[in-house]
Fold:
Amino acid sequence: MLLFGGGVLLPIFQSLFLSFFRWDGITEMQFVGIDNYIKMFGGDPTFWKAFVNQLIYLVICVAIQMGAGLAIACLLLTITRGRETLKVFYLMPAVISTTAIALLFQRIYSYDPTGLVNSLLELVGLDGLARPWLSDVHTVLAAVSVPEGWRFLGLYTIILYAALLSVPKELEEAAALDGANPWQVFTKIRFPHIRPVWVTTMVMVVTYGLRGFDIPYLLTNGGPGQASELVTTYMYKTAFVSTNYGYASAISVFIVIECLVAVGLIFMLARRRES
Structure:
């Protein structure tokens, strides 16, 4: 508790305290009350643009990590040879350096020289869809979200796969004998059995998505314009580029609150589903 309090809770309370001041990191702090929060909620269009981008970024990450992760976990159950090797390959992105992942996807999305995505489009005759994915305001947000989703896809796949392994085989066999098809076995037996693990994993995915920072920042730094600006990248630039530490602290408090609200909603929906 001491380590958790000193490493997590204390910085949160420090940010909360600092959010009521105007401070550039050098001169004396000036108490401004809730002015930073008024500015954030009422007079800063960049913040709301970043907030909407963060929600879209979160949806894409959840779709990849939870949707594709569950599908792959189910497919792993059907593989009898090479399963352990596949699990190692799936986990590799989670241990690769974030900077390396950003450099990798810069090459994948490259327009000139032609990267992997545009090369594949040309190969199948869709070269008209080729574009600079990280420079196009219509595609950049999805382009920076996919690497984050891919990065931890393997980790959540293995967690869900381990949960699926715990489903009693006799229940599945009895359902099959009664005429249940694979979809019914999944929806009536497998998924209800792994729901606690699913909820816990969803909390991990959502909170990490709301705090996503490193890969989008390294790929685009929030650009072009504000097309890929996230709340986290905006907070970082407000603090360390604009040196407005009070306002950046107010944004950081908002990030903490939205994570708590998201976790509360997930558990509330899970309890309602169980009841």
In short: The CA atoms of residues 60 and 264 lie 21 Å apart. The first strand starts at residue 21 and ends at 22. Strands lie at 21-22, 30-31. The first helix runs from residue 2 to 18.
